[in-house]
């Protein structure tokens, strides 16, 4: 966040005729304001850009919003003086708005502040750029999105400075990309992708100085974007996790905030990264010490992540899995959000269907940890909360019903199935009402899933080729559950479907998918004829 220093000065008790220095220093020098503070008429014309920034910073530091009149006066002064702002002023103003949970109320003030930001990015230090990036990501949801010219200027600065940023600045900048909708959209542009790639590449360089908060923010940002860090970055992150966990010769483990361990485990699971043995041991120890203080959000996400990694990546199930279920059983269900109920129940399904069932028939430890996993699974089940098979299951089913959505891709695939004369139904519940099927072929007991972008993670935010995408672990879990419930399963990636040219190509493609899933189609249906494909395109 931003900040400011500041000298003395005297406070103008009647709020009028305040000088430049007295008005600004009254905010941050003495750290108190009169009850009805107003910059005053003379100050509105005499205040400098630095004075405006300091006054806003003073309000923000106290957690007190200026009166509407005072705020407008300060913003009008900012419009007048924006050409003289320096980087410190800009950072303080942005920080103040975020801290006060607001954004410029006058459109001209917003334009002036953004213009100053864009102008100054050419000479900003890395910390200033990271602070501005963070601030833009933290503005209220109803605030206007940053202008494209502002974002382009920030992206160029990030590319220029990424090689010299400290770990905290790299983490803040990456977090800014991930948490601001406008910045996420720009990752599909060359400028946005270059900025992200430059920052992500810097992760490997700063691993030795990362705090646990840095590790958490960097991994979480990559998880939100759906872009895996490079192998070098992952190695640096895991060395930091081990170091911070006391395994690097630096003494005992530090106390880690529950949210940070939750974010780290979630990022590994979301991106499908299998943590190394030493990193997993350090994460296990961190969760053991923080599980009892986790809220429902942190506990449910960590539980889901741990068991999802075991099911999809074969990651060793850590001992904290038992501790997490014990912590879950002691939480107050009245504090649960819908997403928490669903994460707890999803974790229990993975436990029962994909881990316990996988071990059926294996009578002894095979030397690979099978016996240890079975013992952990039994111990965890003994800690299951009473609400798991009642309230959590009911909320999961409700979410399945609420999440039914027939997309354009579904309708396009349905039209092609009709051309192939295949009987089918759209958005059908499984018999146990635990999953919704995109398309179901009742005569064959085959499921067709048409998967959009949310079902994939890629190597980088600017990469759009199919070779850069892979199914997300969540999608792998869905496929595993559906394969247990139905005779066949076929998946249609959106990027493959959208690359097809014409109805003939779509028929040929879908016929091939269905035959591979066990559907016995007439050989004449879906045959690929290049001439027909060209006519239908």
UniProtKB/TrEMBL annotation:
Organism: Micromonas pusilla (Picoplanktonic green alga)
Gene Ontology CC entries for this record: mitochondrial matrix; ribonucleoprotein granule
Compositionally biased tracts (Basic and acidic residues): 465-475
The organism's place on the tree of life at top rank: Eukaryota
Compositional bias segments (type: Gly residues): 1-10
Bias (Low complexity): 11-29
Signal peptide coordinates: none
Name this protein carries in UniProt: RAP domain-containing protein
